[in-house]
Write a structure and sequence with these properties.
The chain has about 55 residues and is mostly loops. It contains 1 helix and 2 strands. A hairpin with a 4-residue loop joins strand 1 and strand 2.
C-alpha cells in the first residue's frame, strides 16, 4: 500500500534547524536540531541517588 504525499509549493525556512537547542533542565546544548534519538538519550541521565547528575 502506497501513501499519497500532498503537494506543498510554499517556501520553507529551514534555518531554525541549524540553531542551537538548549535543554533547560540539563543546561546542555546541542549544536543544531538535527541529532539522532540515540544521541538525545545520551544527553539525558538520571540517578535516583544523585538527582543533579
Amino acid at each position: 500500500m502506497t501513501v499519497e504525499r500532498y503537494e506543498n509549493n510554499d517556501e520553507i525556512n529551514t534555518g531554525r534547524l541549524r540553531e542551537p537547542l538548549t535543554f533547560h533542565f540539563s543546561k546542555k546544548t546541542a549544536r543544531n536540531r538535527l541529532f539522532k534519538a540515540s544521541m538525545g538519550e545520551t544527553l539525558a541521565s538520571w540517578d535516583m541517588n544523585d538527582p543533579e547528575a
